[in-house]
Amino acid sequence: MFDLAGLASLLRDFRVRRLLLANATSSIGSGVTLIAVPWMLVHRANGDQLYGWITLGTTIALFLIMPHYGAWLDRHSRKTLLLLSELFGFAATISMAGWAFATGHVATWQLVFTYFCGMLYYTLHYPAKYAFLQQIFARSQYQSLMGLLEIQGQTAMMIAGALGSVLVDRVPLGVILLIDALTYLFSFVVQSTIPYESTHLNPAAGTVPPKVWHSIAEGWRWLHERPRLTIFFACTLVPFITVMVSNYLFPIYVTEILHASSTVFSRGEIAFAVGAMLAGALVPNFATTRGADHAIIAVSSLCLVSLLVLMLLPAPLMFYLGLLFYGFGNAGTRVARNALLFTTVPNAVMGRVGMAFNAYDRILRTLLTFAMTLIVARGSAILAFTVLFVVLLAAFAGALASRPTVSPGPAGAARAG
After folding, report:
1. pTM of the entire structure?
2. DSSP labels for 210-277?
């Protein structure tokens, strides 16, 4: 469970309160938009296929941007880039809202543009935010802060899901986009008041940002020397990747398999968030008492269960149950996996190793999204979930096979082969 004393101490810090307020506001606004836009896309002519291609194109574009942005982030003020991400979200969204009001309708290209900008916002915002947080808070506060932000993030997702179920079929998209734009602007104003110093740009600190591709090569070299450990961490990243790919399939599944409304889709998003919040509260204690590797194997198995439920029991109630398991399994695996990464990967190479896994994430996500697009066009969402189940099962087997090489050692260290 979380350190309640540490959380109480954090909440007394005005910087934390402002961060929570800004994050919650922008997360709810962008969350409602990213529920509304895919739902509207899949209900247009050939919309499910178009949504798949847009998801694929967005993934490829972000993959190309990511390493360069990471290097840029190390050469500039993290607060400046964090605020610029909020301004980008505001400018992109308010322009689409204004266009919708001016023309009286929303064209398909506007939905595509809004979706791409929403995903680009996440790519720009979260790396800057986490680098910003690492600088302004002490290391002793990091674990409690991440726990608090996880709860806040999942709560915002639940609220976005609830609002989405009410607004999507009742409120014009232009109004939704206007509200979303204002949340970005509000978040910009609140975060601009947080004190910050760009310590990573101080030459006296001895920090010299490495070149982008050199950093990626160094990260891969460290992993290449530990092949079985690399297999374990690569396999245990797959639950998160399948969730990202499944985000394309969920609205199609609800529409074409369940023949249900956007309310069912939004309630499923809420169920997923509830599962993730439960994992955030329960898994850290389980990982501490039983071992992070045992926790990863246990909770990742719930992702397999969730896909089986979606494949074999297509009904709204089972959809909610499946997403509850999916949320718990994905978040629980991510929490325990990150803890194990911190105890096995030296801090000196953590950033480069993380960049290597990010590249792997984007490549596999792109391939799976492309495959899902073809499968949905020629088959059904259930067949697509079946393929994801096979991929996840193979990754689960790989994690089981390589897990014996991951064993906690003294003082939180670990031995890996």
Report:
1. 0.70
2. PPHHHHHHHHHHHHHTSHHHHHHHHHTTHHHHHHHHHHHHHHHIIIIIS---HHHHHHHHHHHHHHHH
